[in-house]
Design a protein that fits this description.
Layout: E1 2-8, H1 16-21, E2 23-27, H2 29-32, E3 36-40, E4 46-50, E5 62-65, E6 70-75, E7 78-85, H3 93-104, E8 110-111, E9 116-118, H4 122-130, E10 133-140
Parallel strand pairs: 1-4, 2-6
Antiparallel strand pairs: 1-5, 3-4, 5-6, 7-9, 7-10, 8-9
Length: 194
């Protein structure tokens, strides 16, 4: 078995011709979020991947094997829920609200300007539909946001100064809790975005 213990994010610094010749491996998010796993590349070679703990592998990253060969990672299509706003009953801001509620539940989310993606969960799908969002099942690559404090957190390749030492709370979080105003939101159980 060939060992790979080096990762080049998005193949940075490699010539296009090397990337074109590289073997590939297609992996879903369940595997790519692990720092140690076994797989088989497109050339049929058994590959043992041993990366630093906490390392997530993204589609487009390149693994470097112990013999110097390169293996380009492809994010495999997998079942996901695609969440969009309902233009008839809501606004694009509803996606921001959904991301907030999903984040509070520590759900891995892929954020896009016009939609969100999460792994299938019928309870979360019901919650999102009750918020008048459109939820549909799909088979697609899944690239959730990295953690804010992780090595791959920002994902845009440069620093904005020292990382915060602990959780950063909105200034209102220090003022204590406040009531929502005690009003109800109408919900029509017959209106569906299924």
């Amino acid at each position: 078995m060939l060992t790979a213990n080096k990762l080049m994010p998005q193949g940075g610094g490699l010539a296009a011709v090397l990337l074109k010749r590289a073997a590939t491996v297609e992996l879903d998010w369940d595997v790519r979020q692990k720092s140690r796993f076994d797989t088989t590349d497109s050339q049929g070679r058994q590959l043992g991947v041993f990366l630093p703990r906490g390392t997530a592998v993204r589609g487009g990253d390149v693994l470097v094997a112990e013999d110097g060969s390169l293996v380009k990672v492809i994010a495999a299509a997998q079942p996901v829920l695609v969440i969009t706003h309902c233009s008839e009953h809501g606004t694009p801001f509803d996606l921001m609200r959904a991301a907030y509620h999903l984040g509070n539940r520590h759900v891995p989310i892929e954020l896009k300007p016009d939609h969100l993606k999460i792994e299938p969960d019928h309870v979360l799908a019901g919650m999102l539909r009750s918020m008048h969002l459109i939820v549909r099942e799909a088979e697609d690559a899944f690239e959730p946001e990295g953690g804010a404090y992780g090595a791959n957190g920002g994902g845009h390749g440069h620093s904005h100064g020292a990382a915060p030492v602990g959780p950063v709370l909105h200034p209102d979080a220090y003022a204590g809790s406040h009531a929502h105003g005690g009003h109800d939101h109408d919900y029509d159980p017959h209106h569906s975005h299924g």
